[in-house]
Write a structure and sequence with these properties.
With 714 residues, the protein is α/β, with parallel strands linked by helices. It has 35 helices and 20 strands. The structure holds iron/sulfur cluster (2 copies).
């Protein structure tokens, strides 16, 4: 039974349980690493971007035509002897299938893997109606025997150890099974399931594709059970979401070329089955197979009309967004999804299984962009997660206090900055005037003690600007410097390092005083209106037309200004062109140094130190900048020692690390362990937010490696 937490208190308890499961973590982690390697191999010499665009385009073209495609599919399938049904919701789909079984005098049913059947809780419905249902995919059978839902969309039993499976098989068969005897367990499954196939009157499958031009369905599997389910019993029912409709076989092949590669790193699955029409069947009294296809709406047609969230219907259920998610890899699918798992699960749960089942899990996203990077359908998953979070808040009609405070502060720049200046004084008893707050106030709770907090700077960067600014005669470039809150109020020294590097390169730097927070924290908290208001303040303050570039040292700000600002004002003609101009001028520090200033080795310091590098999510995945910072490090004569999983998130995620310290701390620990293994003396990164998380974590370690922004190191 699926028990998704419906409030944060229960959810936190569940998360703690999962974090305490060392098998789960090791197994998901091992899987995550091997997946990365096999996926990379599977896409070798292929243009993933091109393939992804192809899928996105085909899906987007099909979505507004779903009803038309359904009509075309129905005409062609019925001509070939298949009965096509349409169910508006889960209950109707289950009733249709149960009625088919009753009418056909069915007793025993075998099922192949189907996420749509999981969505409708079909087994429970059929069992209530007196049918014996046996799942025949090995993983699905195991979780059926345990009476639980899948923990992954492709590998439903990935959360279980062989010991747990051996124990389960011992209980079910009454015969002792040893954890090391994998062959013995496979034999047991084969024996039990073959018997079920032979006794079955009806087989139920899902469908990966429903091809309108021919009325064909396509099923992609790795076990022979899919074929046995669809061929052996006299009745076959396929249950498919209406979003599985594609116009033609060409589109299906386009998806098929990517699906197994992205799901499991296979060029092709062991079986790809195409079924058209009702064929000959020895088990049927009529000599012909009775075949039904049930299309499920369950909110899909409404979702298809949403201008932003319709993107979620591009999903081809490859499961990759879970495989790469640092949170999924720690807590598993039962805690990072409801029926659908991982990033797409956080989104779809709201529409298919109600706000109540999404209320807690929707908040559990770091915005690290790892899911977006691998999604073969080009779905902007982190963006949609925030959109859905907003819906959940609206539906609940109550907001966390944090949201209200954040909105009040961010909307009023003067109030916000006044508060930060006052915070410097208020923190003095805790920081003692030093760089860290090591003893946190008790009200924060001990789970926040995994990192020291930085002290607010005595004099923010903006208050030092008068003494730092310099007039450059005949400047090569005129730039606006976007500081971001962390640099401005916590690490002004990073801004000073930047100035010392670029002012001597003939760059006229200006720091528009009316700039404020980029608005990402508001966006992360689903406070869209606040995020937009803050964006407008920055657009006015920075006045992009006056500058060649808008440079920032903060990867998170940079990616938000460049990627999210245009999205926020999409369809607002009075601002669209202004935002586009602004976004086109935003550039991160490393790209500015390498690609614009073409800085050479002699212009950089030469520290000779051994350094490790942390690639901020918003730089390497958000802005897609990967080579430039590494080039700067090596050009500066530093000994660059690559760490394992350099591009994995550090666990900061802005307010995420405050909301989910138990997860943030684990992700940080892994990151710092990998850095320590390199033997580096300095850990370099290019985001003040990451500096805050990494430096705070290092400060709690025995071997405290210095953490610096790349501008300081150079
Ligand atoms: S953005 Fe990162 S944390 Fe959020 S769902 Fe995607 S992979 Fe997971
Ligand atoms: S959202 Fe993208 S990555 Fe996730 S399962 Fe769907 S297609 Fe795969």
């Amino acid at each position: 039974m699926i028990q998704t937490a419906q409030d944060m208190k229960t959810y936190k308890k569940q998360l703690q349980e999962s974090l305490g499961n060392s098998f789960l973590r090791t197994s998901l982690d091992n899987f995550g690493s091997s997946y990365k390697a096999s996926r990379a191999k599977a896409f070798e010499n292929l243009d993933f971007e091109d393939m992804r665009n192809g899928i996105a385009e085909s899906k987007d073209a099909a979505l507004p035509r779903l009803e038309e495609l359904l009509e075309q599919f129905t005409g062609n399938a019925e001509k070939a002897g298949v009965k096509v049904h349409f169910a508006k919701d889960a209950e109707e789909a289950n009733t249709i299938i149960s009625d088919i079984a009753k009418k056909g005098g069915v007793k025993n049913i075998v099922k192949a893997k189907s996420m749509t059947a999981e969505e409708t809780f079909l087994n429970a419905h059929l069992e209530k109606d007196g049918f014996k249902v046996t799942e025949t995919d090995l993983g699905e059978w195991i979780i059926q025997l345990r009476n639980e839902g899948p923990s992954h969309m492709v590998m439903p039993a990935i959360h279980l150890s062989r010991g747990e499976v051996a124990e389960l098989f011992t209980t079910v068969t009454g015969k002792k099974h040893e954890p090391d005897d994998i062959n013995g367990m496979v034999k047991t499954a084969r024996r039990e399931l073959r018997q079920a196939f032979l006794e079955a009157d009806m087989g139920i499958s899902g469908a990966n594709f429903a091809i309108a031009e021919s009325g064909t369905i396509g099923i992609v599997t790795n076990e022979g059970n899919g074929r046995l389910t669809t061929t052996l019993p006299r009745i076959h029912v396929a249950l498919a979401g209406i979003d599985k409709l594609v116009p033609d076989i060409k589109t299906a092949f386009r998806i098929l070329k990517v699906l197994p590669r992205n799901a499991t790193g296979q060029a092709i699955t062991s079986y790809v089955t195409w079924i058209t029409g009702a064929v000959e069947c020895g088990a049927s009294p009529t000599g012909t197979k009775e075949r039904h296809i049930v299309f499920l709406d369950n909110g899909r047609l409404t979702l298809a009309q949403d201008p932003v969230l319709c993107e979620s219907l591009r999903c081809i259920r490859c499961g990759a967004c879970a495989n790469v998610c640092p949170i999924y890899r720690l807590v598993g699918g039962h805690k990072h999804g409801h029926v659908y798992i991982g990033a797409i699960g956080l989104i779809l749960t709201c529409f298919y299984h109600g706000v109540e089942n999404d209320r807690a899990i929707i908040r559990n996203c770091l915005n690290c962009q790892a899911c977006k990077e691998v999604c073969p359908s080009g779905i902007d998953l982190p963006h949609l997660i925030k959109k859905v979070y907003r819906r959940v808040l609206d539906a609940d009609g109550s907001k966390p206090v944090k949201n209200m405070l954040l909105s009040t502060m961010l909307r009023n720049r003067k109030l916000f900055h006044f508060f930060l200046r006052r915070a410097y004084l208020a923190q003095l008893p805790l920081s003692g005037g030093g760089p860290f707050i090591r003893h946190l106030p008790l009200l924060l709770g001990k789970e926040h003690g995994f990192r020291s907090l930085p002290a607010i700077a005595k004099t923010p960067f903006r208050d030092q600007w008068n003494t730092l600014q310099k007039q450059v005669s005949s400047p090569k470039y005129r730039i606006a410097f976007f500081g971001g809150c962390v640099l401005d109020f916590v690490y002004p020294e990073q801004g000073k390092a930047f100035l010392s590097l670029v002012q001597e390169q003939g760059v006229q730097v200006e720091f528009p005083m009316k700039q404020t927070c980029c608005g990402l924290p508001a966006m992360m908290s689903a406070e869209e209106e606040t995020a937009k208001e803050v964006a407008i303040q920055n657009l006015e303050a920075m006045d992009a037309g006056k500058y060649d570039y808008i440079v920032t040292l903060c990867a998170s700000c940079g990616s938000h200004l460049k990627e999210n600002y245009p999205k926020m004002f999409n369809g607002e003609p009075e601002l669209e062109s202004k935002v586009r101009e602004f976004a086109s001028k935003v550039i991160d520090f490393s790209s500015f140094m390498v690609n614009v200033l073409e800085i050479s080795a002699e212009n950089l310091g030469s520290g000779k130190k051994k350094v490790a590098y942390h690639a901020p999510c918003h730089l390497c995945r958000g802005l897609k900048v990967t080579e430039e910072p590494r080039k700067l490090l090596t050009d500066a004569g530093l000994e660059y020692a690559p760490a394992e999983d350099e591009d994995a998130c550090c666990g900061f995620g802005g307010s995420y690390s405050v909301d989910f310290p138990e997860i943030s701390s684990e992700i940080l620990k892994r990151k710092l362990d990998n850095v320590e293994k390199t033997g580096a003396e300095v850990l370099v990164t290019d985001c003040p937010g990451c500096v805050m998380q990494l430096r705070g974590g290092m400060d709690r370690r025995e071997r405290c490696i210095e953490v610096r922004h790349i501008a300081e190191v150079l």
